[in-house]
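Design a sequence for this backbone.
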């Protein structure tokens, strides 16, 4: 038996292999409408509604750094990212199970802060924390949240329903989370340097962090777009496909394209980049568009609508049209502000946990 490092196949390669191993368990499950491959699993429990379920893992030093992440925020985020996956199915969340593995150096107060953040977010989204598990951890804090939600046959929105000619829409603004992360990473370096030299933390640095509070908020306290699901319900609009932007616009649009067997064309000039992200990018001599395309963790909703249906929601300023669905053979295209078109399949994009 030979051993292959996981980095060789990447996160998506690993998911593919594990899905194949799990596939036999999906036989004789008529109640399961959608298994691995969407934002949530979807199943019937007998009543008229459909249930959805998702789970998400937050690992210290992979997803967060305790030096720059307040416990309360971390708790809130761990709930919000799951609500976001439920919303991506056009469903509303119901119950959460929360498991944590806690290293010995955390205090009771810190863990209570974490749970207070979870409870705060749960109340906001109408989620009941109904159980969970706790364990000690030999290294680092790990948080696992499993969440269920409810929708109906008519409202259920998968990644797989996009059709050529439909409009590609996104909620809110992108790139904020990546900008916030850049700022926090810089702060972390400064903090560690000051700690090493036994010097006090500079007040001017704190002032600058406050100046970019929106980007930092996007990263530490992302909000799930449950308001969009409610808006769709109120207007009677059902997107043909939907995903939440957790890996980055390019990567998540690619998921829709693969599952729907379509191509897509998006235009740089129409991508709603957070104004503050542009300011941060200027300071770091980086590119806010790249952050919007591949930074990830913005937790906005990416969805498709037929042109006639879009007319019904066009007045909603939270919705931006960024392009159009194409036939599969045309690929995944991006036209920049100078009119140059590139094929995104040929370029890297999206965060891959095991990649290099
Ligand atoms: Mg998702």
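Sequence:
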């Amino acid at each position: 038996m030979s051993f292959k490092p996981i980095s060789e196949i990447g996160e998506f390669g690993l998911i593919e292999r594990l899905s194949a191993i799990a596939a036999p368990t999906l036989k004789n499950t008529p109640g399961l409408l959608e298994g691995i491959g969407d934002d949530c699993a979807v199943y019937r429990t007998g009543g008229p509604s459909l249930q959805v379920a998702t789970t998400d893992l937050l690992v210290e030093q992979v997803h967060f750094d305790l030096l720059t992440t307040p416990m309360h925020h971390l708790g809130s985020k761990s709930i919000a990212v799951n609500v976001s996956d439920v919303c991506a199915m056009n469903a509303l969340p119901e119950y959460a199970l929360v498991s944590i593995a806690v290293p010995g150096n955390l205090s009771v107060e810190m863990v209570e802060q974490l749970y207070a953040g979870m409870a705060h977010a749960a109340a906001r989204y109408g989620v009941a924390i109904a159980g969970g598990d706790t364990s000690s951890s030999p290294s680092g804090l790990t948080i696992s949240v499993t969440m269920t939600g409810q929708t109906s046959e008519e409202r259920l929105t998968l990644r797989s329903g996009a059709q050529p000619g439909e409009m590609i829409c996104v909620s809110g603004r992108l790139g904020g989370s990546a900008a916030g992360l850049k700022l926090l990473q810089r702060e972390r370096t400064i903090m560690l340097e000051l700690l090493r030299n036994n010097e006090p933390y500079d007040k001017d640095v704190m002032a600058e962090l406050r100046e970019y509070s929106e980007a930092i908020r996007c990263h530490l306290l992302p909000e799930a777009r449950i308001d969009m699901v409610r808006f769709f319900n109120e207007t009677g609009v059902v997107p043909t496909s939907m995903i939440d932007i957790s890996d980055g616009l390019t990567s998540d649009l690619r998921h829709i394209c693969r599952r729907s067997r379509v191509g897509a064309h998006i235009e740089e000039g129409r991508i709603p980049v957070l104004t503050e992200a542009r300011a941060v990018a200027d300071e770091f001599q980086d590119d806010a568009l790249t952050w919007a395309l591949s930074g990830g963790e913005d937790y906005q909703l990416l969805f498709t609508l037929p042109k006639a249906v879009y007319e019904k929601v066009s007045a909603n300023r939270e919705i931006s049209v960024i392009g159009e669905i194409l036939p599969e053979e045309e690929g995944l295209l991006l036209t920049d502000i100078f009119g140059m078109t590139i094929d995104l399949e040929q370029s890297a994009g999206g965060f891959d946990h095991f990649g290099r």
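Residues 167-182+215-346 form a domain with the Phosphoribosyl-aminoimidazole Synthetase; Chain A, domain 2 fold (CATH 3.90.650.10).
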